[in-house]
Amino acid sequence: MVEPEETTIERAQEAAMARKAVDALAERDRLALLMREEGLDYNEIAEALELSPGSVGTTLSRARRRLVESYEALQKSREEREKNAAS
Amino acid sequence: MQHLDEGTIHSWLDGALSADEAARVEAHVKECPQCAAAVAEARGFIAGASRILTALDNAPRGVIPVAATKKRIDPIVWRVAATLLVVAAGTLVVFRNDGREAPIATSNADTVPSTVTTFAPTAAAGNETHRMSAEPTPSLQKPGNSARGTAVGGLQSSAGLAEKSTLKGGATDASKPTSQALALPPPVTYQAEARAPSRQPSTSAGESRKVAPQAGGAVTDNVSISSANARAAAPAPQTIAPIRLRGASTLDAASEQVHLNEVATLRTLGAKATLYEVTPGDTVTFTEPLSAQLESVVATGSSAGERARQLTGKAAAAPSKRGDAAVVSAPDSQRPTAVAGALAGAPSALVPATHVEVANGVTTITWIDTATRNTLKLSGRMSEARLQRIRISIERERAATAAKKKP
């Protein structure tokens, strides 16, 4: 079964939730995550954030977990609102 | 070996560990199911985080430190450069257009005075040729004036005709530029012709111009100078002397068939003046009397008035209204009556020129219409040869018109 393509509204809703999840992160975690997404390696991130290279992995793992958990929470909340609206 | 911490797992998955550490972690993950599950969870977080960040329609900027970013050129520099480029391009277009239009403007400006300058040389006043000692009636042009005055006066009279009369189509603007003038040979040959109007009848083949006005015979006006010869004789650049080129057009056109375009007609007391345009910008004035009785007098000499009065009783009553007019005293061979019979059938090519006058570039031919006995006058700023050809065309046209009127 082929899933239907996302509509523009759905993509916009996902973008809004992603923005919310990113904004919910701590400053250091958010910066470390965005730097890594832009292709910087651990040494560059450590230098920019004035961290030790060994702690960059820990910061990124924490940021990723919190981001995903935050996003999933927002997604669950939206699904509940839509369910309530439908009922 | 202790279990792997989450930071080490992410570092291993991101490839940030050294080769030794990576090998050690890999070996441990293979042996430790708990750490293997942690690695699987970490992979899920990495993929989830990457998907969420990709979903951001507008990722936050400025997260990279200044040292890591490349220097960019200030946008204002690009704006200034674009403005300068537009201004330079516009200036180039304007200058190129000016250069293209300049020759056109020059040719137009040169064409305007060409009519005056070409036909009003300072020495032209001495070129007046009178075959007859008396002038019949003053026409639109006054040869007795100064060179400049005559030339300008001729233009003004033509303009006056156009204003007072009904325009029939053709433009009378003498300054109208013609492509013919631009494509014509240099004027050296033409000037020689204009300044040395040899009207002596000649039969030699080497003569450049042959005019044989003989009674009873056809008037032969041959301009033997072809345009190719004229070009070879004076290969001057055309753009140097646009005024003279206009004169050369007259020479070439003399050998062509004359197309008369009646531009305007002016009726005055006792006379009718018709303005023909033979080529764009070149006009001739044809004057004919409206009253046959008043205009049947031809002036050939003031001293011969008495004899003419004796010959023509009708003309003897006329001079009371024209004090300056004299009566015809022409030799028998040139008298219009001698060719009247021949002209009845073909009046155009057999009419001799009884009076040719050139003053300041204005050639005037006066002859007698054998059918009506009227004095006709044709004047224009062109050579006599061409004027004679135009006269023949006018005669043919008049004969055709008269033939139509007759039942």
How would you sum up this structure, described in words?
The complex is a heterodimer of chains A (87) and B (407). Chain A is mainly alpha-helical. Chain A has helices at 8-23, 27-37, 42-49, 53-86. The model of chain A has no long low-confidence stretch (mean pLDDT 87). In chain A, α1 (8-23) packs across α4, α2 packs across α4 and α3 (42-49) crosses α4. Chain A has a domain at 27-86: Arc Repressor Mutant, subunit A (Orthogonal Bundle), CATH 1.10.10. Mean pLDDT of chain B is 60; it is low at 102-256 and 292-351. Chain B folds into 2 domains: 6-68, no CATH class; 98-405, no CATH class. In chain B, α1 packs across α3, α4 (75-119) crosses α9 and α7 crosses α9. Chain B has helices at 6-13, 19-31, 33-55, 75-119, 147-164, 179-182, 188-195, 227-233, 242-254, 292-295, 305-311, 313-317, 340-345, 384-405, and strands spanning 209-211, 221-223, 261-268, 271-279, 282-289, 355-359, 362-369, 374-380. Chain B is built from 14 helices and 8 strands. Chain B is α+β, with helices and mostly antiparallel strands. Helix content of chain B is 45%, strand content 13%. Chain B is rod-shaped, with a radius of gyration of 46 Å. Chain B starts with 5 loop residues before the first helix and ends with a helix. Chain A binds chain B through residues 11-12, 14-15, 17-19, 21-22, 31, 33-38, 40-42, 44, 47-48, 53-65, 67-68, 71, and chain B through 5-11, 14, 16, 42, 44-46, 48-50, 52-53, 55-57, 59-60, 63-65, 68.
